[in-house]
Amino acid sequence: MRHSSRRAACCLTSEPEEGYRPCVGILLLDAANRVFVGQRHDTGREAWQMPQGGIDPGETVLAAGLREMAEEIGTDRASLLAESSWWRSYDLPPDLARRMWGGRYRGQTQKWLAFRFEGTDEDICIDVPHPEFKEWRWASPQQLPSLIVPFKRDVYLSVVDEFRHLWA
Questions:
Q1: Strand 107-117 and strand 52-54: pairing?
Q2: Architecture of domain 2-166
Q3: Using the 8-state DSSP alphabet, how is residue 123 labeled?
Q4: Which of 52, 71, 157, 159 could bond to 25 as cystine, CB 3.0-4.6 Å?
Q5: What span, in angstroms and rounded, lies between the C-alpha atoms of 5 and 150?
Q6: Under 8 Å between Cβ of 136 and 37
Q7: Mean pLDDT by 10 residues, the chain (168 residues)
Q8: What is the Cα–Cα distance from 70 to 12, expressed in whole angstroms?
């Protein structure tokens, strides 16, 4: 079942969409209701994003979210606040889609989890074995769409809209 979001052009589905890599996205809120964002290390431009990553076969969305949080930002000091109602899909730019994952996917389909961070800034470590980020910071939820690469912007608008009740 496909649904269009009023605020965003990303595709909302009740199940992961064929041809898209199943992923989990993590919206991590601190005590001041700011969101963790990391600056990607693998691009020359200033590309910031929330943690995200693939869901392994047989893995639950929650287990994938906790694993990705530990792998990308070195912490599990968080409690689950909410899970998105829908999967959100986006297409990668064609040149990137050909290079990523051997060209098997045209983009990603993501289930989003919102967590409350229960640690301190010292608990976050981006110097991990396979780093995703070269810098990190806390940003207001309203800033997120302007920080992300354009092809993910509609997903971020939709995620912010769905989880708005957590900081309103």
A1: unpaired
A2: Alpha-Beta Complex (3.90)
A3: G
A4: 52
A5: 17
A6: yes
A7: 44 90 98 97 81 97 98 97 97 88 91 99 96 96 93 95 96
A8: 27
- 């064609």: which residue's tokens? 94
Which H/E stretch holds residue 28? strand 20-29
Structure tokens at 88: 């959100």
The domain locations on the chain are 2-166
> Length of the chain, please?
168
Burial class (CB in 10 A: 0-12, 13-18, 19+), 159: buried
List, in order, residues 6 or more apart from 149 with CB less than 8 Å away.
45, 47, 49
- Give me 34's structure tokens: 């700011």
Question: CA 62, CA 87: separation in Å to the nearest integer?
Answer: 14
DSSP 55: P
Structure tokens at 51: 């943690």
